[in-house]
Write a structure and sequence with these properties.
alpha/beta, about 50% helix, Rossmann fold, single chain, 3 domains, globular, 5-stranded parallel β-sheet
């Protein structure tokens, strides 16, 4: 029995997702298709624009058999930890094949890199640590280590996730076959194209544009109040100002709690706050995830 597994956020579920789903099902010909999907928050550290029930319903109407929620504490993590939890969950659900999209679509490259990291793990970790001590962000440090070991780099968002998925399967020796489908659109373009990005569609929906040609479940978004992180800004500000134990919140470390209390007095929006907190070491996504953990009061002791 072949069981297809997909990791997704469907924020929103668009024509590109439908293409990926149908291509995956055509390639695998599964008896069952399971999607592990983020819930109320997504991996980039934002609230999903509509609730998980609507996103799940659209996925099922488009051919998914089962949608399983990835708990928010695991969703609001870096690519490595997000992937670790997602792949472990799909493994426990018994999937035989996982299909993901990537900018290169080269599954052999991801396998080669994963096996190289596994076979030279101590050297790889040392190279990453040394690069971070020199001030590089973690993704850049990893790429520098890969360049040293095998003259390769992985930089685009979906390739990074694809590599993270592959590492989890390889490192844990999961009996899962991996497949990559090449993406055909710009992942961060804000223009509406043949296959528009989720970024472009979120922008268009907020501007009340008709994007029914791009969204299989457009009826569920039309005239719907879309969630926006700025709606949570007053609650986030309250949590930062009133919490004397910010250092206990997951992802709050190295004294950044002092900068948080200072910056929250100046910022008027979430984006302004992220701008004030971002640095050479911390990406905007890393800061956004930290702010969501503060909003939800997820402590280090509670996040395993």
């Amino acid at each position: 029995m072949r069981i297809l597994g997909i990791v997704a956020e469907y924020n929103p579920f668009h024509k590109g997702h439908l293409y990926h789903l149908k291509q995956a099902q055509e390639r695998i010909k599964p008896e069952v298709t399971i999607v592990v999907m983020s819930g109320s928050f997504v991996q980039r550290g934002e609230a999903a624009i509509v609730d998980k029930w609507i996103r799940s319903q659209i996925a099922v109407e488009c051919g998914v058999d089962l949608v399983v929620e990835l708990p928010t504490v695991y969703t609001l993590e870096s690519a490595d930890y997000f992937s670790k939890s997602s792949i472990a969950l799909l493994h426990l659900l018994g999937v035989t094949d996982i299909v993901f999209g990537s900018e290169t679509g080269d599954i052999q490259q991801f396998n080669d890199i994963a096996h190289t990291i596994q076979n030279h793990n101590e050297e790889y970790n040392t190279l990453v640590k040394e690069a971070m001590q020199k001030g590089l962000r973690y993704p850049d440090a990893c790429n520098q280590a890969l360049s040293t070991l095998m003259h390769k780099e992985v930089r685009t968002p979906n390739d990074l996730l694809a590599l993270a998925y592959t590492k989890e399967v390889v490192f844990n020796n999961y009996p899962i076959h991996l497949h990559a489908i090449k993406r055909t659109s710009d992942y961060h373009s804000e223009t509406i194209e043949t296959f528009a990005s989720a970024t472009a569609l979120r922008k268009a929906l907020r501007e009340k544009k008709d994007v029914s040609s791009q969204l299989p479940g457009y009826v569920y978004y039309k005239d719907k109040v879309l969630l926006d992180m700025d709606a949570f800004f007053p609650y986030l500000k309250y949590n930062i100002l009133m919490n004397d134990q910010l250092a206990n919140i997951h992802l709050v470390d190295e004294g950044i709690e002092n900068l948080l209390k200072e910056s929250i007095q100046k910022a008027k929006t979430i984006n302004e706050l992220i701008d004030l907190l971002s640095s050479k070491r911390y990406t905007r996504a890393r800061i956004a995830r930290m702010l969501s953990h503060i909003l939800l009061n997820n402590t280090k002791d509670e996040v395993i």
